[in-house]
Amino acid sequence: MAKITAAQAQALTAAFIASHSSKTPRGFLFSKDTVLAILNQEGVTGLRVHFGDDGAGKILTYLVGTGSHDEDMRSGLIHTTDLECPPYCGNGG
Q1: Predicted model pTM
Q2: What sign does the dihedral 49-81-93-23 (CA atoms) show?
Q3: Is 13 exposed, middle or buried (0-12, 13-18, 19+ CB in 10 A)?
Q4: Alpha-carbon distance 4 to 93, whole Å?
Q5: Fewest CB atoms within 10 A around its CB: which of 1, 30, 35, 78?
């Protein structure tokens, strides 16, 4: 994994927006409390973002903790969100 700059992140988002439908979400908001609740579980060493479809064509995402072998820890907390960007984009997303 590599850190990127804010400018690089903005360029990635701009490229994504340019190549996808305006109906495609470009991000999802998870609270700090949600992320920490998953990360603070016993045995969790990472966090994975999964994408899904609600059956009606709406893209969803959920977070699940991962273990020391990068496996999903599906017996623990799994959180989804309906706070997608847009409209929940803060200062312009």
Answers
A1: 0.83
A2: positive
A3: middle
A4: 16
A5: 1
